[in-house]
């Protein structure tokens, strides 16, 4: 059970955002959905979620279809293979600052509408994403930072913790993806789009080598989406604790707080600061575990219901539809028909 729900899920809103440019160009996305093993019914369910693995498969298939690793978000685009070239250019750098400046120069030479700038001060490093004064889609800003931050983390073989993230654009209906992937301090309608982190991290030596590039690229983009997520948040710590137990054995708030060496009031307040409650964290984790397990053709819906702490499949069916807007069968049938 510990591995189930580990990688989390992605909202269907991000799937639509990724597919948008292909749809506007009247491209046939049926092959992309087939490779990602996504049922079209899920696209019509506003609250639906898909596994991170499915989203990664979709990412690769869509990049292949469009010959663009930036999904049509830039007027020039990022031709297939560009990210590999950028990785090979960055890995021979001396330290993180040198590597980041190479990465930003490469992307500036490749993309027309986005330009990154690294500003270093005594205690803070800031990567500013300039957009030419034209407000871009949030998905474009976010994807650019996933490509840059993910590669930077891999180069130094550790997560680079972010202090804050700001976007010039308005907030989405659900900003959990950005808080989970980057940091808790995410704000919108800001003057600039940027991330900040401790400047001393720029002096980290590059820990990878040209010999390890191919392994990294084979794991992309799943490693970019999942491996370097923000795991220091209170909600991430709570999820980590809960994943080690069966759902029907999950502790009450006070008991979990004792295990985390804080008071129940403090734990509740910290979760509220992240826009969550303990019940919401439990529901979201049950949902993610269920989606992971439903993606396995070896388990029936009834078996998944039992493993997620439901004594009756009918209760699980109602809860799952409440969480995602679709029935468990939509995921179950998708796994059977597309594998």
Percent of residues in helices comes to: 40-55%
The count of β-strands is 7
Mean pLDDT reading: 90
Give the strand line-up of the largest sheet.
3-4-7-5-6
Low-confidence stretches: none
Distance between the termini: 22 Å
What's the SSE pattern? Answer: EHHHEHHHEEHEHEEHHHHHHHHH
Number of helices: 17
Give the structural class. alpha+beta
**From the alpha-carbon coordinates, what is the Rg to the nearest angstrom?**
20 Å
Residue share in β-strands: 5-15%
Shape: globular
Summed up, the domain count is: 2
Q: Largest sheet at a glance?
A: 5 strands, mixed
Word description of this protein:
- It is a single chain.
- This protein is α+β, with helices and mostly antiparallel strands and 339 residues long.
- The protein folds into two domains: 79-227, no CATH class; 234-338, Arc Repressor Mutant, subunit A.
- 52% of the residues lie in helices and 9% in strands.
- It is built from 17 helices and seven strands.
- It has helices at 12-24, 30-36, 40-43, 52-66, 82-91, 96-110, 138-156, 176-181, 213-219, 222-227, 234-243, 253-259, 264-273, 278-294, 301-307, 313-324, 328-338, and strands at 9-11, 49-51, 115-120, 124-130, 164-166, 186-187, 194-198.
- A five-stranded mixed beta sheet has the order 3-4-7-5-6.
- Helix 8 (176-181) links the parallel strand 5 and strand 6 (186-187).
- Helix 5 runs antiparallel to helix 6 (96-110) and helix 6 runs antiparallel to helix 7 (138-156).
- The longest helix has 19 residues, at 138-156.
- The model has no long low-confidence stretch (mean pLDDT 90).
